[in-house]
């Protein structure tokens, strides 16, 4: 019986990319709440913030609200599986977890490489499947560039928009670093363009070789090596 449950579980996890059909009371609410608390504990969020979608449960299978269960899987894309019920007749069910988040979307169509205006971006509540992102949601700003043609309603992801360069290739920059309590700055030339937060190579004036640093402001780079 255990081996058959494992085989079923394997099929459930391998089929994770498939969208789940809508279900009506497939899993008892009390059991679903316990699963939500388990996932919330792993993610470090409040259970009330989660949204769960359940796979099908055979009409011949019965899950008691207080049934013991094991939560299996790594949660990639929000996908898990539970094995619930007595060891003699376990039931395996897929579940997908996510949370409602305020995401940035295109308020209207934007051409590729065009800069975003303030009215091109709006916030919209959507379910984000998987664990919450570290550092919060991605928030592009006016002036960022569209990496591709955007349609109204498209979520704005880091691959879709990029911050405008704060430093152009070949531009003079100030390269600085801190030694103890002393801040040292030197003049250099940016060897590639970079937005704030990006790492670029810099050639120091009057010195051989290059250094790398993080762009912190227009024309300003903080040395990292």
What would you note in describing this structure?
The protein has helices at residues 2-14, 29-43, and strands at 50-54, 69-72, 79-84, 91-106, 121-129, 145-146, 161-162, 172-179, 182-190, 199-204, 210-217, 220-223. The strands form 3 sheets. Strands 1, 2, 3, 4 and 5 form a 5-stranded antiparallel sheet that branches. It has a 5-stranded mixed β-barrel with strand order 8-9-10-11-12. Strands 6-7 form a two-stranded antiparallel sheet. It is 12% helix and 35% strand. By secondary structure, the chain is mainly beta. The protein folds into 3 domains: 2-98, no CATH class; 100-162, Antifreeze-like/N-acetylneuraminic acid synthase C-terminal domain (Type Iii Antifreeze Protein Isoform Hplc 12, Alpha-Beta Complex), CATH 3.90.1210; 172-223, SH3 type barrels (Roll), CATH 2.30.30.760.
